[in-house]
């Protein structure tokens, strides 16, 4: 909050970018948007439903991850019994609400749903339930620091070796490097970009990033890299159309801004929604890397229309 307040009050910036967890977005929103009345672009995948007219979101939302992914998974694997181990904050709870709806609509069932503090590490009882209740899909929204212990305990149970399917829609290449490859083998993820993407612009961008930041964290979707790039370029396009930095004019242009190239492909703001229509992909972990198994094409965020509650 203090940093956001400084940007608004002292630095007098024209726009604010950033934030990962939804708690960070809310902390920035208070001083920057509610009090400061500044344009704020939030780049991370999140639970959706942010409808403030001064906020634009450039990462995926549940309609772009859960809606297309679960029907595909059920069709491909025949698995219909889902277990939802989750961190206890707004993103997992909202994601799971969408998961329950989509699973039920496609003939599946939720055999378990649990929530844990972020620093929780003992999952033996949960893993026992997953195994005894006959879960076929573990749709995980546990996040670090509890993530590593959960994946290890699930792996040791033999869940995937008996044919179970592990899903973690936010998982990307940086996360794969923090846990043993065996613990994530076969895991499915659904994001707007993976390094396995073959389009020329994405490859060029990745090569340029790796030259600029050798040995650092990788350019990935889950760390908001893609949403940040997308947000900056959409804002740039809006400023050029507006012909000035006057906030009202930039917002009007940003509402329908488009970019022809970006990580994962082109992107555009959906007029009235303040969220981005973009390509989405399903990938599967294989020996410590993600391989795209399905290009879902351009998916609409289906978010709230500005001015309509």
Features:
Rossmann fold; 309 residues; 2 domains; alpha/beta; 12 strands; 39% helix
- The assigned structural class equals alpha/beta
Give the overall silhouette.
Answer: globular
Strand share of the residues? 15-25%
What is the CATH homologous superfamily assignment of the largest domain? Response regulator
Portion of residues within helices? 25-40%
| Overall average pLDDT | 95
Rg, rounded, reads 20 Å
Total helices: the number is 11
Instruction: Indicate how many domains the architecture comprises.
Output: 2
Distance between the termini: 27 Å
The sequence of SSEs as H and E is HEHEEHEHEHEHEHHEHHHEEEE
Q: Main beta sheet, described?
A: 5 strands, antiparallel
Question: CATH top level of the largest domain?
Answer: Alpha Beta
Regions with little confidence, pLDDT below 50 for 5+ residues: none
What would the CATH topology of the largest domain be? Rossmann fold
> How does CATH name the architecture of the largest domain?
3-Layer(aba) Sandwich
Please report the total strand number as a whole number.
12
């Amino acid at each position: 909050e203090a940093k956001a307040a400084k940007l608004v009050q002292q630095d007098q910036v024209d726009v604010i970018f950033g934030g990962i967890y939804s708690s960070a977005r809310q902390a920035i929103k208070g001083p920057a948007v509610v009090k400061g009345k500044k344009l704020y672009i939030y780049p991370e995948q999140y639970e959706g439903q942010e409808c403030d007219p001064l906020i634009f979101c450039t990462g995926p939302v549940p309609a772009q991850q859960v809606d297309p992914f679960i029907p595909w998974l059920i069709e491909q694997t025949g698995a219909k019994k889902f277990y939802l181990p989750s961190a206890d904050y707004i993103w997992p709870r909202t994601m799971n609400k969408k998961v329950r709806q989509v699973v039920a609509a496609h003939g599946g069932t939720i055999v378990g749903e649990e929530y844990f503090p972020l620093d929780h590490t003992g999952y033996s009882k949960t893993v026992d339930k997953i195994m005894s209740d006959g879960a076929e899909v573990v749709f995980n929204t546990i996040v670090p620091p509890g993530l590593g212990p959960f994946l290890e305990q699930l792996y040791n149970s033999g869940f995937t070796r008996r044919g179970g399917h592990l899903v973690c829609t936010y998982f990307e290449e940086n996360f794969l490097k923090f846990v043993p490859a065996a613990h994530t083998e076969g895991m499915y993820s659904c994001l707007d970009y993976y390094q396995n993407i073959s389009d020329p612009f994405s490859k060029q961008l990745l090569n340029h990033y790796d030259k600029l930041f050798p040995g650092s964290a990788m350019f990935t979707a889950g760390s908001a890299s893609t949403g940040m790039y997308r947000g900056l370029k959409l804002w740039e396009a809006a400023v050029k159309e507006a012909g000035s930095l006057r906030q009202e004019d930039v917002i009007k242009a940003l509402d329908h801004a488009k970019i022809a190239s970006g990580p994962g492909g082109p992107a555009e703001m959906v007029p009235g929604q303040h969220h981005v229509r973009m390509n989405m992909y399903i990938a599967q972990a294989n020996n410590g890397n993600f391989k795209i198994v399905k290009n879902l094409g351009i998916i609409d965020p289906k978010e709230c229309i500005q001015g309509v509650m």
